Amino acid sequence: MKDVGEEKLLNEVINFYLGSSSFNGLPIYDIDDYDIEAMVELINEGMVEAISEKDVLNPHIKGFELGLSKKHQIENAKDVDLHTCFYPTDKALEKVKVDYQRPYTALMQNGKAQFDIIFFDVEILERYNNNPRFLIMDNGYRGCISVKDEFYEESGENEYIKDYGMAYIDGEKLNRAIGVFVIDLAKLSPRIQMLWKGFELEDQDSCKINDGFVKNLLEGRWVTQHWIFHALLDEMKVINEQCKKMELPELFAHVYGTGYNEMPEGYRSILLPTLKNYYDFVLVMEKLVVHNISIKTFQKDSLLIAKIERKDGDGKDKGSIVMLQEWLKRNVSSNFDIDEVIINPIKYIRKIRQVPAHELTNNKYDIDVYEKQKELMVNTYGAIRAIRILFMGHPLAKDVKIPEYLLQGKDIVFY
User: What separation in angstroms does the CA of 150 have from each of 136, 146, 158, 184, 189?
Assistant: First the structure.
């Protein structure tokens, strides 16, 4: 039986935790008439956990189950000069009435660590990806979901996911899932929490979050890998700079930045693996790579570079891919097969694009879409990178600055 002092102190810890916006711990400096002995007894009884600045960078949140010994926690509680916060344990929260209409808030009300990750079917993101009221900021290994500013007032609900991570489901084939921190889910409205609950994967243990998500958000480290989607755009920018140095029109009519609002719409990892999503992505790639090639590059003479004719032997206009092929073979001496490395991958984009353009196709769910997109991106990136490498050999292009990661060609990944 707890004495009155212990009971009062425990209630203060519980009420602060449940009443705070982010389920924070009660700071030692906010406790009036702090009773050290009562707090020590609560720790011994397993009712309170004491986390200090010695244990974590920010003791105001309980991000993980730290497994601190009672002896260590008591030392925290006794040092009034230490920045310590107190949390109710699962045992202390057993009799708390939880809000089951908010399943993820209920987990926090039961003492769940904030940074525990819940895994979901990627289909949940289709709700946001196909709705123009929402903005998805995607960096490959992690992303963010929010309501666009112009729709914020009318949304009426808090539908903001600060961070989701790309995750993978165990198996022989690449299969994606989405991981979200419990604390982010707990801040959603009841209706939206129930919506997300419907997409929660049954076998949570079969899922693994991307390493970059862990390094960046949980360990506070920089992610040194580079998303292949960003790398391709950076290669295209370098190639255009090389063209300018070689006194040629730029090879690509348009280049894009790597910020979420600078990239072409639809240029991202496929979330739900359907044939429709795959063909939609191929269309984006056709516009980005094939249609984006400027034939003006091939129609101007420059140092060590001879132009080629626009017309073929029958007086018909040549296509951009044919002109690129002819121009490279006329002007570049290469130790690799230009057709195999550069031309064929670009032609393949056009070939795949012809399927939905000229045939009636049925949409279907196909997990192999993930691998198909990966193969398409890897081969296309290899083709564009090869062009940049060939241009590096021109004497006028030697001074073009190239990002080190592109030069090294390492840690360029498909998430």
Answer: 15, 11, 15, 23, 20
Q: How far apart are CA 368 and CA 15, in angstroms?
A: 50
Token pair, residue 173, equals 């084939």
Closest CA to 62 of 179, 181, 163: 181
What average pLDDT score do residues 372-396 get? 98
**Which candidate, 362, 139, 154, places its Cα nearest to that of 258?**
139
Burial of 207 (0-12, 13-18, 19+ CB in 10 A): buried
Q: How far apart are the first and last CA of the chain?
A: 54
Q: Are 86 and 61 in contact (CB under 8 A)?
A: no
pLDDT on residue 154: 74
The torsion angles phi and psi of 51, rounded to 5 degrees, stand at -120, 130
Q: Provide the pLDDT for residue 155.
A: 65
CA-CA distance, 220 to 217, in Å (whole number)?
6
| Length of the chain (residues) | 415
Query: With b meaning 16 or more CB within 10 Å and e meaning fewer, what string describes 167-197?
Result: bbbeeeebbbbbbbbbbbbbbbeeebbeebe
Please state, for a pLDDT cut of 90, what percent of the chain lies above it: 89
